[in-house]
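Model the whole thing, not chain by chain.
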Amino acid sequence: MAGARTARVRPRLSPFMIGVRSDALVKMARFPSEEWTKLYAEKLNANKSYEDAGKNWEGAITFVVQKDSALDKDAFIYLDLYHGKCRDAKFSLTESDLPTPEYKYAGPYGNWRKLINKEIDPIQGLLTGKFKLQGSMMKIMRFTKAAKEMVNTTASVQTES
Amino acid sequence: MWFFRSPQVVFGDEALSYLSSLPIRRAAIITDRYLLGTELPERVRGALPEGAESLVVGDVSAEPPLSEMTAHLEKVRGFSPDWFVAVGGGSSIDTAKILFALHERPDLTVYDITPLVQLGLRTKSRLIAVPTTSGTGSECTWAAVLSEENEKRKHELASPEILPDYAILDPSLVVSLPPEQTRNTAADAIAHAVEAYGSTWHNPFSDAMAEKALELISENIEGVIRDPRGLGPRGQVHIGASMAGLSFSNSQIGLVHALGHSLGATFKLPHGKAVGLLLPYVVDFNYDACPERYDRLNMLIPPKYRGRRLSGSLRSLLGMMGVARTVRDAGVEEPAYASSMDALVTLASESTGMVTNPKDSGSEDLRNIFIKAFDGD
């Protein structure tokens, strides 16, 4: 993928934790990374609940993972979502490398980790300022179930801690 | 991190007289067509501080579309109120919330009223809600519902900034509520308490409100139905309905409201009637996701209505109140229902109630509940 690089996460770097690892039939990936993005898109496309909840959704969203004390640089995960499927998924450390999305869901890396661990509800995360959303509110409020399924899917990606 | 948000609540005998102690100079009184023809607007005017000017806007119908809610926006802006006083049921209060927001921020549209945007209201005016029904809870919530103009859809608006500054609960204002509205609004309040308690966002504050609300309403509603003019039971149900509003406003609704908004918008059923009939079916569907919580709620229902499970108890209680048990009983015809099923399911699936319901559900689950609710189990 042009322009795509793996984000550097400061703590607990180990040569065994770089990129996709396949052991005991489990693929693991560091978040955020190109590998994680690919695994996430696969999981999302296999999620029947998301397919049902997002069957009328058309529009791309970029997850903006903002740098904090545990992440050196901002990272961007672009997802082209159409009728309950993810048609394309790209990762980059440079936002301008990615297509312009209809929505951006942004928050610091630490909050993303909590979201993936289901310690933060995605909508409550917005209401408490842990995440910010850009885009038409009217449209997205009709797809809150799809948003919840998107977050549920992050938990199914084997993410390195 | 989470919040408990509430207006200042003034309740009990002669609570309306509290208006005279507020620094009101120009009051926009928002009420409905029915109340406009009663003595109530004059009572409210009479309770304002001496010398206060007022403008009465009284065109609100039941569950109004946006055009109706905002029909007098320019008149209201021209009057330049420093307080909005909503007098009526949920439709009047929701209309006042929208007029208040659009008066404060002329650059907004109603669809900008979302919890994700800081609106910056209260630079010109404040908002008081004086409910004349006991059920919607709108006087204590940061939500407003509007019916879409050319669609069979209800749009759920929400912002902490449209939460009223004061809720005035005067039992004398509800004693003349007609039986059908008494029944439907009380059913709505019961649904609020049950949904808030089961919500995945429930918290100790919303739990306390939900439990007490269910207790107050279920213990007193029979007395209200037997003696509608009795201030005691009316007052208790009135307080219970506002507590139920506080419970769901601080934790969120669930599938009953997701399905109820869809059913109500599609077949023009009053909101309370739609959610009241659906409530036991959804409780049955949800039971295995939160059995302890539902069992605890069940113990709050008076023994004469209490069954082994909450859904059975609710059927007894709602049955005593005269709430329709099935969609068919509510007057919906089977062919129209069957041909609307896909649209009903889609509309329900787009409700925010889908995400906070205790049990995850998909389109087939919604369809099955709608099918069961048509003729009963």
